[in-house]
Amino acid sequence: MVQIVDSSILENPVFRTYCFYSSILVVKMLFMSPLTGLTRFRFKAFANPEDGATMKIKPRVDDKVERIRRAHLNDLENISVFYVIGFIYTLTNPSVAWATLLFRVFTAARFIHTFVYAVFVVPQPARALSWATGFLITGYMAFKSIMHFL
Fold first, then answer.
1. How many Å apart are CA 49 and CA 122, to the nearest integer?
2. Which residues contact 85 (CB under 8 A, 6 or more apart)?
3. What Rg do the C-alpha atoms of the chain give, in angstroms?
4. Model confidence over 102-136: pLDDT tens digits?
């Protein structure tokens, strides 16, 4: 049997923590699609003619649906970058406590961002602060990775 992954990386507590929080973020992003669909049905705001044809509803745009879609797009833009740089960052041998804090705060910031943007709309700067938190963490990990591999 061919071993694809070196088992030592799977024993690395930083890598295991990265995998844990990355998995939570996958579930969070998976949740966004059904949330969009349910909101479309709730407000009868379908994007395509065939989606509302059985109910004789023409396509229309709804702000609540669009907010969820924009939050999902923001997740796709930011979490995908986190996956890449988070993995690279685990290879820099960071402290377990520090890496765990970064992964945990990034994950919390993404949940807060979605909550204040799409679930219970909260005035700015709540959304900007939650986005900036994740952005700064991602930037920090990128900088530390670049410096480590320079």
1. 32
2. 138, 141, 142, 145
3. 19
4. 999 999 999 999 999 999 999 999 999 999 999 99
